[in-house]
Amino acid sequence: MTGAKRKKKNVLWSKMHTPHWEDFKQWCRKRLPILEWAPHYNLKENLLPDTVSGIMLAVQQVTQGLAFAILSSVHPVFGLYGSLFPAIIYAMFGMGHHVATGTFALTSLISANAVERLVPLSVQNLTTQSNTSVLGLSDFEMQRIGVAAAVSFLGGVIQVAMFVLQLGSATFLLTEPVISAMTTGAATHVVTSQVKYLLGMKIPYISGPLTFFYGIWVSTYVFTICFAANVGLLFGVVCTIAIVIARFPRAKTLSIKNIKEMEFKVKTEVDGETLKQVKIVSINNPLVFLNVKKFHTDLINIIQKENASNLLLDD
């Protein structure tokens, strides 16, 4: 019995440690999906639509890459480089047929946190920005891109280690409310970080606890106090007018033009006798009433008040 177990164990050990060419090819296909689908790619049917889709995504990635580079606190040209290489790498290692990968806002903010902390924007850096390097960029910008590249490389090493350890299965521990909360919080953080670029404000970069609430407070303060007489007031008036126009339907317009003088008169009757017409309203200028119904209502109220006062005088 012991000999049979030993023999079986030796067979399993030999299978585990004897490499085969087919096993190696299968391992390569699992790790490089491009080896699986590239030989079966239909050029006649798929080349044209894939080319059109690629051009559309490339046009989108130009502006998106520039924006994410600014969000990462590096020179905008590196956003174009960062949009090119992820797509090529994902074409070789990715398994999704309808996925466009690249940089996104959350990783850009994380990279900006390290860049601003290690290479801050100080007076000394501002004075040395005139010294250009081989790429036409200043030494300060090259230092920042070096830090961003190191952070990106370290993040890639951590992700590869998680892939080797098969830690992707741990995502089932994250419930849907947790994922939704993290997504909403990240989106809100990205929006508040871009307020200074939207309004043209110069706010120093601050990292640490309560940074999110500090950004909201500073943006609100500057927007409502410093720009209250210019941008804030104009923005409030425009928004109020737009809300009123969209919320309420337009009233009918009544125009009274090119009339030098117009009088509204009413006949009064006292004890069955018709008296002379009494002038209650006199208009000497052209008028435009935006609400016809309100105009008639006010006019009737004036007439009723005039009738009541005439009755009191006659009594």
From TrEMBL:
UniProt entry keywords in alphabetical sequence: Membrane, Transmembrane, Transmembrane helix
UniProt subcellular location: Membrane
Domain of life of the organism encoding this protein: Eukaryota
Classification via InterPro entries: SLC26A/SulP_dom, SLC26A/SulP_fam
Main location: membrane
One Gene Ontology term from the biological process aspect of the record: transmembrane transport
Single GO cellular component term: membrane
A Pfam cross-reference name: Sulfate_transp
Protein name: Solute carrier family 26 member 7
Organism of provenance: Equus asinus (Donkey)
